[in-house]
Description:
- This protein is mainly α.
- It contains 8 helices and no strands.
- It starts with a helix and ends with a helix.
Amino acid sequence: TRKIIGFLSIREAVVSSVYMNEVLNLSPLDQRRWSPQYISGVALTGANCAVTISLGQMVNGMVEALSIVLLFTGVTFVNPSVTISTIFYFSFLAYFSTKFLGRKIRIAGQETYRIGISSTELIQNSVSTAREIHTSDAQKRISTIFSDQRFASYKATRSKAFIGLIPKFIFEVALVVGAIFICAAQVYFYDAHKAITGMVVFLALTSRLVPSLLKIQNALLELRAATSPTLNFLEELNKVKRLNLQNHNALNKAESRIPATQNHN
């Protein structure tokens, strides 16, 4: 984990630096397309979401998925019926709970990202235009706007935190319900020895499966929350590159039209 986070952090720094280099190479007129706060949000938060958060969570999910595959490959030879039914049961729950919660956490992530940039922009503009604000007696209005933004950010942060806790309770309830059904099925179809074996296999599997599924689900939810800043970041980076390319082509065309003697002078 230390190696992976270190590797991704270095890439994040590189990508962020490349973005700022592209922005700085734009003409002053093109740079005014975005506020300094927006450029800062894309270069810092956007790069973090695009690289460290997204790819880091993806790697964590892949590692946990591999551990589940290895575990179930071995345990299947002990009790195939319990193993296969357990993996399908919890995978079904994980899929639908992620699908249900993904949209909510994505909206909360978009709101947190947007409000963070807006609040930073409001603070810097308020400091830089303090004289005008006092002259127009706009302190109360700006204070109200900032307060509304902070309360909106609080609600989005609360939603993200609460949504992250829901899968834990879903799997805990599913564990109890599944244990009851597995126990009843084993007692009904098999003798006491096989029933006890099936219960032991189920409890051993779920003790390792549930934490891994929770990590995978949290990784997927984090990816959903980081989707909007990541896409915004990539869109902004591509837009900057296209502008640079257009400006470069326009400059080359303009230079090609200049007579050779005038260009030499």
